[in-house]
């Protein structure tokens, strides 16, 4: 794993620090409770063939959750306003199956949560991503989130305010996102769009070396000409 981290440090572009939204990590004294594997999901320990960096567009996620206690740290406004956040760094495998829930976890230390809060502003989401995906990549949560943070910070984000003010299709957005990231092509990402056409998530396809790669054909894709809208917040 040390060799992988060193490789990432060599490959990662200059840190973009593209998110201009203010973030205030909450005071934490208790560890984040571990998330256990749901009974209806299986434990899969299979070889890793690549990764997905899933980036959630927070304004759309929070549009109907501003008063939700469950999502207060991300959507309530007291801890800041968020643009793109990291949903997770997910190991992939050949075919439709992917590694998950590789082993049981312990509570996340408060220092780990606070260090990564502005990237993943939810203790529960952080604990879930570590339990479901991170345990299939490394032994320690600190290592998983360090790799995730390097990859997240290396992403440049397009001007979402400007894009939201013009008519867009899915391929228009993918081209705009690729244009500000060296080495990224439109076919190296997938979008998640809700039934009403609003952008929910950008998923970057990465190879085993964490370099961007063409997305596997089996991954669901939004058709190029589908109209796409971007919610900027109230």
Question: What's the layout of helices and strands?
Answer:
Layout: H1 2-11, E1 50-57, H2 58-62, H3 72-75, E2 84-92, H4 110-116, H5 123-132, H6 141-153, H7 160-164, E3 168-169, H8 170-179, E4 189-193, E5 199-206, E6 227-228
Antiparallel strand pairs: 1-2, 1-5, 3-6, 4-5
Order of helices and strands: HEHHEHHHHEHEEE
CATH architecture: Alpha-Beta Complex
Parts with pLDDT < 50 across at least 5 consecutive residues:
1-18
CATH topology-level fold name: Ribonuclease Rh, Chain A
**Spatial strand arrangement across the major sheet:** 2-1-5-4
Q: What is the CATH homology-level superfamily? A: Ribonuclease T2-like
Instruction: Bin the strand percentage.
Output: 5-15%
Q: Total helix count?
A: 8
Biggest sheet overview: 4 strands, antiparallel
What's the count of strands? 6
Could you say how many structural domains there are in total? 1
Q: How far from one another are the termini?
A: 43 Å
CATH class: Alpha Beta
**Helix/strand-derived class?**
alpha+beta
Dominant shape: globular
Mean pLDDT: 90
What is the helix fraction of residues, given as a range? 25-40%
- Rg measurement, Å: 17 Å
